[in-house]
């Protein structure tokens, strides 16, 4: 085993503070996101101001009165959002956040320090909204709003994944993600939108999911999943799609029924749902209208977030369900846990209202009495996280588990920023994993739970053109994975987030860590004994990836 | 953004060589995209196997609005092209992979969402 240094020191020469006010001259390739084209932001489903102009970063083609529009949008934001105003005023530049940002650690660019990122817009705020900035200009840390400054704002607003690790360390609790969020909205008022994000927003507004998948494709994919499960378990399993009168609506990120390794997680969901229906009579349906739990609108602006999350409550009401289970998605939980109740009205159907008066699962399926949703981290707005739900099923002994079926895996768990920091769900996934597998090891304490490092691709940063930034941003996370890989022989990195599952295979390859990526529900699916179908623990011959089960020796 | 000239007509591409409007695609456009070395290190000579895959991608896209998942592509390839087809074989046909080469030549837009 090669020697690893105790710690890695990054030596940097920092520019003078006055130089920090000058906009960067060159936008580096590999870190600059493409701008949206009219196809995305001038569509029937998603219209943004000045979206009809095709532009690129060499020629922004800003509207004539862009400066006015920008400052107007900023003034409006300052007036309506006290947090934004407070964050503009309150920073003392102590630097506690500086080395907490994975993009700063990875790129070494001082403007990628959370304080540096916020300063970019704060300097504009000082110039136009504070007396000292108006009078003393540069000497008060203020700068003029020019086209180069706008370009720089775009460049750095889209080098942040809104993971909020910095805010955890800020003595004032300044939430840089919130600043960047509003900044992105202000930029969208003068026609600057990031393409990757708006492609997904437009697709979701048009078809119900970020992929742009039409209903037939979704149904076909889930059916193929059921066929694969027949090969693995030998049973004819089923699921419901758009079933009126079902007890529960299930909403997953669309990647779960489409991409790999997300796919194996979907197989896990299907196994659990079949067992619950057969054993307890709890019916769970998918929907082709609310076919996406994720919400790229939450990376873009309030309006886009509201537009995309409206469909889910509507669909819950139409189908007459009692509550919603949400799948393994990251930012979906920031959206559904913290935004949705201020953006859209909850379903008004009788079943929903009745259930939430006394949220005990026994009201829907007698055998599950005792599982109550009142105190759940995720449950506040009628949504239950699948892992929190599974944790309750295990705790109440409602499902049968055979841990040994996961003996070929040695796992570690990555906390997605929005699930751990955003919602506070930290122990439940670990409880589930310890109960469904024998070999589970956590990464070092300062890189997990509320201090979790970002995957480097959240917040709309999953675009291919910024691969360089993504691979740099994921570095701290990868070093922690490498640590447990060497120390415990971890061979799978589990994470309940679709963006993570898309990012990590690239990252592990780039950082040369030869392990797999998966989701906790895949492990649950492997270990779940389908007792209601008469399955015995020793009956299962294959895991969900189609690999023969037979202990460690056979696999390695 | 770059253009591609086919039969005297200029077609608009995006920065990574994907056709901006999938409806402008036909077989001659596919040939031109395959030969375009701005976006792939080597020109790709389209054989019968290539065409079978391109046709499947196209049909699936027109029916369902997106490119098929890779696992479905492999399944289809086993059925129609080669019984022992796997991902490596698809990479042999399309060196930069199903998304960057196969979808690009088939005139499909880049995949979106968390995939």
Would you give an account of this structure?
The complex is a heterodimer of chains A (556) and B (115). Chain A is mostly helical and 556 residues long. Chain A folds into 2 domains: 154 residues, Fumarate Reductase Iron-sulfur Protein, Chain B, domain 2, CATH 1.10.1060; 354 residues, no CATH class. Chain A has 24 helices and 10 strands. A 5-stranded parallel sheet of chain A has the order 1-3-2-4-5. A 3-stranded parallel sheet of chain A has the order 7-8-9. In chain A, helix 4 packs across helix 10, helix 8 crosses helix 10 and helix 19 runs parallel beside helix 23. Chain A starts with 16 loop residues before the first helix and ends with a helix. The relative contact order of chain A is 0.11. The C terminus of chain A is likely disordered. Chain B is mostly helical and 115 residues long. Chain B is 46% helix and 7% strand. Classes of the chains: A mainly alpha (556), B mainly alpha (115). At the A-B interface, helix 11, helix 12 and helix 22 of A face helix 2 and helix 3 of B.
Task: Describe this protein with a few key phrases.
A: 556 residues; mainly alpha; Fumarate Reductase Iron-sulfur Protein, Chain B, domain 2; 5-stranded parallel beta sheet; 3-stranded parallel beta sheet; 5% strand; B: 115 residues; two-stranded antiparallel sheet; 2 strands; 46% helix
């Amino acid at each position: 085993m090669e020697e690893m240094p105790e710690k890695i020191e990054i030596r940097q020469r920092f520019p003078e503070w006055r130089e920090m006010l000058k906009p960067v001259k060159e936008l580096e390739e590999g870190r600059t996101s493409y701008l949206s084209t009219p196809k995305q932001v001038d569509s029937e489903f998603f219209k943004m101001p000045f979206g009809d102009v095709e532009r690129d970063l060499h020629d922004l083609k800003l509207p004539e009165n862009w400066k006015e529009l920008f400052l107007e949008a900023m003034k409006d934001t300052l007036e309506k959002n006290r947090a934004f105003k407070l964050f503009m005023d309150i920073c003392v530049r102590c630097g506690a956040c500086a080395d907490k940002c994975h993009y700063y650690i990875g790129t070494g660019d001082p403007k990628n320090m959370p304080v540096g990122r916020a300063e970019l817009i704060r300097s504009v705020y000082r110039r136009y909204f504070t007396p000292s900035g108006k009078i003393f200009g540069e000497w008060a840390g203020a700068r003029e709003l020019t086209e180069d400054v706008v370009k720089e704002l775009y460049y750095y607003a889209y080098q942040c994944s809104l993971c909020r690790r910095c805010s955890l360390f800020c003595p004032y609790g300044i939430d840089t993600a919130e600043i960047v969020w509003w900044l992105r909205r202000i930029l969208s008022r003068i026609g600057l939108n990031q393409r990757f994000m708006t492609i997904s927003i437009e697709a979701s507004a048009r078809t119900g999911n970020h992929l742009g998948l039409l209903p037939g494709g979704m149904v076909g994919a889930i059916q193929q999943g059921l066929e694969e499960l027949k090969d693995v378990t030998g049973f004819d399993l089923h699921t419901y799609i758009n079933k009126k009168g079902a007890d529960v609506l299930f909403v997953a990120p669309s990647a779960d029924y489409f991409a790999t390794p997300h796919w194996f997680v979907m197989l896990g969901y299907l196994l659990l749902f079949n067992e619950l229906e057969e054993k307890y009579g709890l019916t769970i349906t998918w929907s082709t209208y609310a076919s996406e739990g994720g919400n790229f609108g939450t990376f873009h602006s309030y309006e886009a977030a509201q537009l995309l999350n409206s469909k889910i409550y509507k669909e819950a009401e139409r189908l007459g369900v009692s509550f919603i289970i949400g799948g393994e998605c990251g930012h979906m939980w920031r959206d559904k846990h913290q935004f949705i109740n201020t953006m859209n009205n909850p379903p008004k159907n009788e079943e929903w209202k009745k259930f939430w008066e006394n949220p005990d699962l026994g009201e829907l399926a007698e055998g599950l009495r005792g599982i109550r949703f009142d105190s759940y981290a995720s449950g506040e707005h009628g949504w239950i996280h699948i892992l929190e739900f599974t944790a309750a099923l295990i705790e109440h002994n409602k499902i049968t588990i055979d841990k040994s079926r996961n003996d070929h895996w040695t796992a570690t768990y990555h906390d997605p920023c929005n699930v751990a920091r955003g919602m506070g769900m930290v122990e439940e996934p670990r409880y589930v994993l310890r109960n469904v597998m024998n070999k589970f090891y956590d990464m070092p304490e300062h890189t997990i739970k509320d201090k979790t490092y970002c995957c480097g691709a959240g917040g709309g940063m999953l675009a291919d053109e910024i691969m360089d930034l993504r691979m740099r941003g994921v570095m701290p996370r990868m070093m922690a994975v490498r640590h447990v890989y060497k120390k415990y022989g971890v061979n799978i990195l589990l994470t309940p987030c679709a963006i993570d599952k898309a990012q990590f295979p690239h990252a592990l390859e780039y950082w040369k860590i030869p392990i797999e990526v998966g989701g906790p529900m895949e492990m649950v699916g492997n270990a779940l004994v389908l007792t209601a179908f008469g399955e015995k623990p020793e009956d299962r011959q294959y895991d969900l990836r189609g690999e023969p089960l037979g202990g460690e020796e056979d696999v390695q | 953004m770059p253009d591609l000239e086919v039969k005297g007509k200029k077609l608009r591409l995006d920065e990574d060589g994907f056709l901006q409007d999938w409806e402008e695609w036909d077989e001659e456009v596919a040939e031109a995209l395959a030969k375009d070395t701005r976006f792939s290190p080597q020109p790709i000579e389209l054989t019968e196997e290539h065409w079978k895959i391109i046709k499947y991608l196209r049909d699936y896209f027109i029916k369902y609005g997106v490119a098929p998942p890779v696992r479905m592509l492999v399944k289809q390839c086993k059925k129609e092209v080669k019984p022992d087809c796997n991902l490596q074989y698809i990479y042999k046909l399309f060196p930069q992979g199903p998304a960057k080469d196969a979808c690009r030549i088939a005139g499909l837009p880049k995949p979106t969402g968390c995939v």
